[in-house]
Amino acid sequence: xxxxxxxxxxxxxxxxxxxxxxxxxxxxxxxxxxxxxxxxxxxxxxxxxxxxxxxxxxxxxxxxxxxxxxxxxxxxxxxxxxxxxxxxxxxxxxxxxxxxxxxxxxxxxxxxxxxxxxxxxxxxxxxxxxxxxxxxxxxxxxxxxxxxxxxxxxxxxxxxxxxxxxxxxxxxxxxxxxxxxxxxxxxxxxxxxxxxxxxxxxxxxxxxxxxxxxxxxxxxxxxxxxxxxxxxxxxxxxxxxxxxxxxxxxxxxxxxxxxxxxxxxxxxxxxxxxxxxxxxxxxxxxxxxxxxxxxxxxxxxxxxxxxxxxxxxxxxxxxxxxxxxxxxxxxxxxxxxxxxxxxxxxxxxxxxxxxxxxxxxxxxxxxxxxxxxxxxxxxxxxxxxxxxxxxxxxxxxxxxxxxxxxxxxxxxxxxxxxxxxxxxxxxxxxxxxxxxxxxxxxxxxxxxxxxxxxxxxxxxxxxxxxxxxxxxxxxxxxxxxxxxxxxxxxxxxxxxxxxxxxxxxxxxxxxxxxxxxxxxxxxxxxxxxxxxxxxxxxxxxxxxxxxxxxxxxxxxxxxxxxxxxxxxxxxxxxxxxxxxxxxxxxxxxxxxxxxxxxxxxxxxxxxxxxxxxxxxxxxxxxxxxxxxxxxxxxxxxxxxxxxxxxxxxxxxxxxxxxx
Length: 659
What we know:
Elements: H1 6-28, E1 34-46, E2 48-68, E3 76-77, E4 80-81, E5 85-91, E6 98-99, E7 104-108, H2 110-157, H3 159-269, H4 276-348, H5 353-379, H6 381-400, H7 402-437, E8 438-439, E9 442-444, E10 449-454, E11 461-463, E12 469-484, E13 496-501, E14 504-516, E15 529-536, E16 549-566, E17 570-573, E18 576-582, E19 588-598, E20 602-607, E21 614-626
Antiparallel strand pairs: 1-21, 2-12, 2-16, 3-4, 5-7, 5-11, 6-10, 7-9, 8-9, 10-12, 12-15, 13-14, 13-16, 14-15, 16-20, 17-18, 18-19, 18-21, 19-20
């Protein structure tokens, strides 16, 4: 028996209240007294043995599991579907035909089958190679990830030191910008001075050059005069110079000769003239006298020559002195000029005044730019320091998350391997499925069942990935139901489900709750609903097709193989339950019974009745004849609405959820 949902109970209660109010209103508007005639109606009910079930009822449709002959792989090569096209030779079955596992379904052209099989096997071989590459990359990537993790950890540990170094670098950069501005100002001042003194320095340089050139001209002029004079008087000068160099020696020799002569004469005068010594000594006097005379003559000749050519010598000497002075003057002028010229070149190089002015202007621009750079850097100083702090935080975070990132990298590498492995497994399964499904070039049924669809005909060129024969299995059915939020709490996994199909009204199948969605199926409406999947796996499902309608009751409580009687046959007063029993001879008796479990309409009988006995369900109908045929509630036949059934029961309502 079925339990009405909380929502349906609310609707029924409202309907009952409306019915009571309508009946009362109909009685109240009668304008004349009426005459009542109460009539008791009875119908028989049999005491039976069976199950009493309390649960949640819902309707749905069957979803039959199907098996397809197509290769269930989704593979692409260079963004193109895997080419597994074949030509169908013949088809041996029709839609709606029942087949058994291993039964021939269709045959494939052998050449096209060989080509497709080679393509699939080649792709399988390629996938295995890529799997090995993924494993190698996993090994390499693991090492690299470990290195990265160590580096990141090191960055985290050194974050503070790196930050301090960055701040120091920022300060040094700021100092360098300031120093650059100072240097620019110094250079500008220097070039300003150069520009201001250019004319003066150039005039001095030209003057020094002119002085040097004049000294050179003077030197050359004196040199020319000297050379000319020397050419004319060189012999005289040299002779004079020779005499001059010897006259002192000759004077000394003359003095010595004079002294020697005086000595000899003195000694000679003291000798005896008749002596031999006197005679011999006279020769000595003669020799001494000759020596004196010769020296005196040389000296006299030199003195006479020098007196005669003294002017030439003095002029010659004057020329030499003047030439020497001119040379010295030129050398001094040249040295002064060269020193000043070197200094000038060091200051100005090859630049003229316009070049210096241009450089001066460029320096002013450079100074302005460097000042702007300094100002900008000073403005961004705090930003740069904050950036360094952010980098420190980033490095610390990098260090803190190093192991997590390492794990993530390993997971990604593992995922790549698993993806490659999945492709290998998928292709291996496809190869195995194709090989196991074929008997030569004939594809066999993979399971028992009903052929529901054939997507090709003989002669068609189709892909093994898309072409298929679908076979519906007859051993399992799934049903998706929808329950509102008031009832979903009473649903649980593996809960017993009683399923009856409209096409098989006399048969009930047992299933169980296989899945409960915790995500609202229809949210935002007046009532939120959730989907529940019921699985039925049993024999006798051969005649159940996909989409067939069914009713499902999820059992919340249940008693089995008990005596059952309709609740409307029971009268309860002061806690005592009785029924009216019709005996075999037609007589009736009121019998006390003990009741148990109930689903709201059927009651379990624990004692007082036996299976097969007949009980009466009595109800009273109040037929009222009104003296005023225009009273509300009358119909054209003069009958009033019937009263509620005896025993205070509600009118019979449709079972199942009311959506």
